[in-house]
Each structure stands twice: as C-alpha cells, then as structure tokens.
Amino acid sequence: MKVLFAASEAYPLIKTGGLADVAGALPAALRDLDIDARLIIPAYPQVENFIKITDEPIDLGDPLGAGPTRLLRAVGPDGKVPIFLVDCPTLYDREGGPYVNPKGEDWADNHLRFGLLCRAAATICTSGAIFGWQPDVFHGNDWQTGLTAAHLVQWGGRRTATVFTIHNLHYQGLFDPSVLPAVGLRQESFGLHGVEFHGMVSFLKAGLQYSDRLTTVSPTYAREIQGPAFGRGLDGLLAGRSRELKGVLNGVDYALWDPANDPAIPASYSAKNLAGKKKAKAALRETMGLAPDHDGPVIGIVSRMTEQKGLDLVLAAIPHCLTQGAQVCILGSGDSWLEDGFKFAQEINPGMIGVRIGYDENLAHLMVAGSDCFLVPSRFEPCGLTQLYALRYGTIPLVRRTGGLADTVEDAGTEGSGTGFLFDHATPDDVVWTVGRAVDYFNKPSIWKSLQQRAMAKDFSWQRAAEAYLATYNEIVW
Ligand code: ADP
Fold first, then answer.
1. CB 162 within 8 A of CB 211
2. C-alpha radius of gyration, the chain, whole number
3. Atom of ligand 1 at shortest distance to CA of 11?
4. How far away, in angstroms, is 416 Cα from ligand 1 center?
5. What is the widest separation between alpha-carbon atoms in the chain?
6. Where are the beta strands (DSSP E) in 88-195?
7. Quick one: which of 182, 150, 148 has its CA closest to 67?
8. How many angstroms separate the alpha carbon of residue 303 from the centre of ligand 1?
9. Contact residues of ligand 1, CB 6 A cut-off
10. Which of 99, 168, 303 to mutate to test the pocket of ligand 1 (most atoms within 8 A of CB)?
C-alpha cells in the first residue's frame, strides 16, 4: 500500500500546532505497518534546516501560473519518511509563518500557496508512475489540502482513493469565487454539491465533498460536528456522510514526549520514581518567575491564545484559582487582548502567575513536566494533544468535557479512579470549581500519587491510530 500524506505543517520541519505533531508522526507510524507512506509539504524556507535531499528534483513547470515549480525529494532528520517538497520560490520563499506574514495577517495569496500544494499532490497521484511512485491513497489534512480530491474527481479516469482528515473544522479556507480559475478548478465545481459555501470557495468543503472517506481526530468530535452547535455550517454535509466519517484519536510520539527520556527537562523520571518531577517543578518556577516555596500546585497551560481554547475563562477565573492556593503559568500566543490580559494578571500577581508570550518548544516540555496540573478549558477541541502529553508526565489534566478531551481523560470522580478532572460548562465558575477539586486531591499526597501513576500508565501511542487508518485505506483500495 502506498499513501501520499499531505499537510501544511509537520514537526520538526515547521510547526504552529497539533497538525504538525500529527504529520510529523503518523506517516512514520504507517511505515511501521509496512505502508509506503510519503509526505508532501510546501518547501518553506524553515524546512531547509531539517531535511536531506535524496534525489534529483522533478520539474513541474508552472502549473498555476504562480511561478516555476519543482518537487524536491528529501527525507527528514530521522531519515525514515520520504518527503516531497513543493518548491515554488515566488510563493513560499519569504519570512513569516505558513499561513500569516510577519505582521500576523493571512498571506493574501494563501489560495495559491495551498492551491499549488493540492495541485502538485494531484499530479503525483495521476502521473506518479512517471516518477516511479504512484500512491494508492491520497490522505489530505485540513483545508490546505482540500482541493486535491476535487482535482482527482474532475480529472476523471481510474483514480487514487482519497481520505480527508479534519483537524479543526473552524478553519475553512474561504476565498472569493474569482480564485476558481487561478487554483485550477472548473466553474461547474462552484455549486451546492461542490466547493461553494455561502457564496465563497471553500477548500475545506472541497475535501469533505470529494474525498472517499472522512475522518476526524476523536470519536466525540466526529459526533459533535454532525450537529449545528459544532458543525460550522457543514453539519448537514457531514451528517449526510456519517457512514463514511470516522473518529480516530490522535496518538503521542513517545520518542519526543516521555519524561524518562526528554532532553528539555532537568532530570528524567518515571511512574515508579517521580523525584525528577520535583526538579522540573523547581526549574519551571524559576523560569516563569513563580515563588519557589509556595505550597500549592502549579497549573500549566500551553496553548494558542484564542477563545476556542477557553483562555478568556481562565483569565476571569485566575483570582479565584489563586485564592484556592494554586499558582498558574501559561505559554502561548494569539489574540492580543488575551496576551495583554495575561501580562496584566502577571503584573498584579507577582510570584503567583507566570506568563510567556511566544512559541517555545523546549519551554513547552518543561511546562508539561514541571506543572502539577494542565488546564485545557476549550470550547471545542477536535482532539487536543497537550492533555495527552500531560498524562504521560504525571501532570493531571483539568479539561472541558468536549471532543477529544472527553475521549482521553477519565474523571477522578471517586478516589482511586480516573486520570484527571472534567467539567461541562465553558464558564469561569466551572474552571474555578475544577481547580478546587484538583487542589483538594493535591493536598492528599498518596491519593495524588496514585492518580499520577494511573495517568502515566495510559498508552496513546500512534500504532493504534495507524492501524485504524490502515483499516480505512483498506475499505477504499481494491
Ligand atoms: P491546536 O493544534 O489546536 O493548537 P493541540 O493541543 O492539538 O492544539 O496541539 C498544540 C501543539 O502545539 C502541542 O504540541 C503544544 O505543545 C504546541 N504549542 C501550542 N502553543 C505553543 C507554544 N506557545 N509554544 C510551544 N508549543 C506550543
């Protein structure tokens, strides 16, 4: 079985969030099942630091009239997964992130940046034999890869089977209909049963409409998005395809996220010997400017600062969390009003709140290891990865009962059970109540320790997810 896996980010080449963790780990896990999985991703300048070119580039001409385009062939640092890099300097060779410019604004030509990724993937699927490799399955991820399935249907003939995974339905890749010819779509695709969404072209809808199978990253989110509360206007389409839509929980790359072997923390530790976790807590307190000898738990958050993630609830809840004896530290960036709010909270609560605005992979590891609890109060959460990392590090997750959070954390309802604390309502009151429950448990060391040990014993390795994807591929490859 050959699988072309497309994504707009993949760790360690380039990362803004959980999609990168998935695209960095799942193709390798598929290869462990003897699937010839290969990754396709734009050749952003940052990527250069991590790859090794393996073969001659392939000239693709100028498929969208956006500039000369080549496919570079490479491998990542682990040398395991072959990578196709779509190299089009006019579109990708610039400073900034994959989706936004250095000022944080969406790139004005995102339809071309990701339209070209989709087009190059479709070309490999249809003429791959020319390059000596043709996939049986195209596996797209999120809106940036949605048009490939549309091209393959439009181009007709015997075609590669297609799977499309929704990592976040909130981001839809909506563009003015005038972009249709520029991204290589025919006018007739612009309709209710095509790529049209309320008068716009939706890259996401293209993926949902034209792919053979749909998946999302947790069973609960798969159910939630089929209703109006979480469906973002696509619930009708998704409910109509419910038999082809499956929730597959993401995994954790334990080679990167394991306190027994993590170069970013001061001392290794395990469920049997938690001594190293105390050192991590001391180091985290020092790094984040928290009072070193405070008695209560440290509650950590590593997150994009958006309302999706419920960080406005945290801001409102902070004074009450402190009254209950917790210290709070947060690493993230995003909406400026939230960034400013947390900076202000830190200013007026020195030693009790630590805030770091920005993106810092090493600090994220120290946060997961050095905190006692990890708070994830999302309004919606397709899967969520930080609570999975927290579990492995014996850091007790406090999460809202939604999406993948509901599927991965079990409430410690009675002493001696569960792996964390869940709450139902996206309100500051529920956050405060849950922090209060956690502080009560934290103050009973032997009960806390057994809770940590149950959390650390949970196994969310990628193998289970890779097997579920293989089963999906097998349904559509004849
Ligand atoms: P999402 O993809 O919606 O942002 P996930 O929980 O699925 O949320 O994944 C977030 C990933 O991004 C995790 O690996 C988390 O550690 C990482 N992350 C988020 N914010 C930061 C940050 N400011 N610095 C470092 N890593 C971060």
1. yes
2. 23
3. 14
4. 30
5. 69
6. 137-141, 161-166, 174-175
7. 182
8. 5
9. 17-19, 21, 302-304, 331-333, 359-361, 364, 383-386
10. 303
Q: How far is CA 107 from CA 68, 110, 141, 211, 438, in A?
A: 19, 5, 20, 27, 43
Predicted structure pTM score: 0.96
Distance (Å, whole) CA 164 – CA 148: 10
Q: Which of 21, 363, 366 to mutate to test the pocket of ligand 1 (most atoms within 8 A of CB)?
A: 21
Residue nearest to atom 24 of ligand 1 (CA): 359
302 C-alpha to center of ligand 1: Å? 6
CA–centroid distance, 386 to ligand 1, in Å, is 7
Pair of tokens at residue 241:
């395809």
Residue 120, CB-side half-sphere exposure with 13 Å CA sphere: 33
Q: For the packed helices 203-210 and 110-131, what is the interaxial angle rounded to 10 degrees?
A: 40
Helices 203-210 + 147-155 axis angle, to 10: 50
User: Which residue has the CA at smallest separation from atom 19 of ligand 1?
Assistant: 303
Residue by residue, pLDDT tens for the chain (478 residues) are 999 999 999 999 999 999 999 999 999 999 999 999 999 999 999 999 999 999 999 999 999 999 999 999 999 998 999 999 999 999 999 999 999 999 989 999 999 999 999 999 999 999 876 678 999 999 999 999 999 999 999 998 778 999 999 999 999 999 999 999 999 999 999 999 999 999 999 999 999 999 999 999 999 999 999 999 999 999 999 999 999 999 999 999 999 999 999 999 999 999 999 999 999 999 999 999 999 999 999 999 999 999 999 999 999 999 999 999 999 999 999 999 999 999 999 999 999 999 999 999 999 999 999 999 999 999 999 999 999 999 999 999 999 999 999 999 999 987 789 999 999 999 999 999 999 999 999 999 999 999 999 999 999 999 999 999 999 999 999 7
Atom number, ligand 1, closest to the C-alpha of residue 250: 7
* Cα–Cα distance, 191 to 410 (Å, whole number): 43
Tokens matching residue 225: 């998005």
